[in-house]
Every structure is written in C-alpha cells, then in structure tokens.
Design brief:
Length: about 90
C-alpha cells in the first residue's frame, strides 16, 4: 500500500476534521469524563485494530487518549490509516 501525498491526506482529513497531520502521521486526542471511560475506549480501539491488523500508537492520560496512525512499512500515511481513523471516530461517537 502506497504512502499518500500531502494533498491526498489533506483532502481525506477534510472528512475527519478533528484529526491532524504532522510528522508522517495522523492523530487526534479524545477527552472523557473519567479515566476508566478512556480505558474502555482504548479497549474498543484495540479490538478493532486486531480485527484490521493495523495498530495505532496510543497515549493514555487522565481522561484523555491520543491516537496516532502511520504505516511504518510505507513511510507515512496510507489508506489503511485513513480507514482506521474513520473507525476510531465512529467508536468515539457511540
């Protein structure tokens, strides 16, 4: 799977407005009412990542979770990262 151009990433992120692009990755920070709500969200992401065999970098803090996707084997953001960002965004809404 090929690395997307900056223009392609920018176009895709217009459909994911809370996600940002920098350092060859896309990321978003999610906020929660409690620490355990954030942990439950991480568990949902982990299950989806295993299902898709595409795993994000996760940073867990107090009532927040930062999610970042990149395709290391392609050297940047690919369609797989964009698809997973959509999945994570859907999880955060539900």
């Amino acid at each position: 799977m090929g690395k997307l151009s900056t223009d392609e990433i920018t176009s895709e992120l217009s459909k994911l407005p809370a996600w940002t692009f920098s350092n060859d990755q896309i990321e978003q920070e999610f906020s929660f009412d409690s620490y355990m709500d954030g942990i439950a969200f991480v568990n949902q992401i982990a299950a989806k990542a295993e299902e898709q065999n595409h795993h994000p970098d996760l940073e867990v803090g107090w009532c927040r979770v930062k999610v970042a996707f990149t395709s290391h084997d392609s050297g940047g953001v690919t369609d797989r990262d964009i698809r997973m960002a959509h999945e994570v965004s859907r999880l955060s809404e539900g």
